[in-house]
Amino acid sequence: MNRKFITIKTEKQFTPLNDIIADFIKDEKGDGMVNIFTSHTTCAIKIIENEILLLADINNYLDETFPMDKKYMHDRIEIRDVPINERVNGYSHMRQLFFSTAENIPVKDGKLLLGKWQTVFLIEFDPIRDREVILTYVN
To answer: Whose CA is closest to 98, among 55, 68, 70, 58?
Structure first.
């Protein structure tokens, strides 16, 4: 088993990870599996097509379904046991409910066995910040 921790500054909502993952597994031989995991509750890992209009459709759907300006119970900082400067981000948690924190991808001789149009993304639901991604390879 091989593991690597990576910090990614999410400067946009969709950050492609294929190149980072490919670099991590490039020297592996034979059959294996790579797992991409994030330990955060307001971002996700998802395999989707890297097509700008699809990404816009996803963002529009999330904006309509979980608008930022809606009142969420999570945002009632005054009744929660959290620091006073806690982020007001109920919408981010709600959006993340419909995505995963991890993806598994088969590997053959150091190559990801993704489909032609598949891209692994780190999807950010909260403002720009540093995110930890854990890559684990098992053969």
So the answer is: 58
pLDDT score at 104: 98
* Domain encompassing residue 23: 2-138
On whether the CB atoms of residues 58 and 43 are closer than 8 A, the answer is: no
In this predicted structure, what is the pLDDT of residue 126?
94
pTM above 0.85, yes or no: yes
Kindly give the parts of the chain with pLDDT less than 70.
none
CATH number assigned to the domain comprising residue 34:
2.60.120.460
